[in-house]
Amino acid sequence: MKRINLIPEESRKVDVVQILVREVLSSKIFYVAVAMVTVFVLIAIWQDGEIRKYNKKMLLLQEEYGLRQQEIAKQQEKSEFLDKKIEQLDKLKKLVSDRKQILEWYLYSDIRWSGILAEISRVVPEGLTLNNLSLKPDGFIFKGTAQGNEIISKFMQTLDNSPYFEGTRFIYTEKESTGEELVAFQVETVYSRRENRVPPEEKKEDGQ
After folding, report:
1. Which residues are 166's β-sheet partners?
2. Which residue of 47, 101, 115, 153 has the smallest Cβ count within 10 Å?
3. Largest CA distance in the chain
4. Is the pLDDT of residue 96 over 90?
5. Complete DSSP assignment for 158-182
6. Where are the beta strands (DSSP E) in the chain?
7. What is the DSSP-derived secondary structure letter of residue 124?
8. Quick one: average pLDDT of 28-46?
9. If we measure between CA atoms, which residue out of 115, 133, 125 comes closest to residue 192?
């Protein structure tokens, strides 16, 4: 015999949905799923907070790193400044030491200045002009111009042949920018400690 359901179709659908809801709510799987979702949400919130803290720390570290870099740059500038000052002081110290040696040499050596000046005027060849004569701890520095390198070589050779000078050495030559064919030069020579320094001309005069 066929059974007939006299409950309206709308009522039957509502009952089915309610039954399913009740079944789901009464099921352990639902609570487990809710718990897992809750845990995931809490983990996500915690991770977001940690990421924010980490980013904040990174910003602070970057700022500190920038400040340290600025301090290092300032220290390097100070170090370079001090190095330059030390270098200048070393140069000044050497200059003072050289001047002291020159003065001691000038005051306490047995230099015959009249003879030296007369000898310098004698050994300067034609075509060469001395513009500057300065002292160094053991001799003299000559600067001037000449009408060619051959005249400079002759001047140096004459200095070495003189009884007052020895160890003459060439420092530099440079063409002058003037219209004349002149060569600027610098040579150094050492004051000779040899005996019998009197040049032949002076010996003749003494003999007379």
Report:
1. 190
2. 47
3. 178
4. no
5. HHHHSTTEEEEEEEEEEE-SSSS--
6. 128-136, 139-146, 165-175, 183-191
7. P
8. 80
9. 115
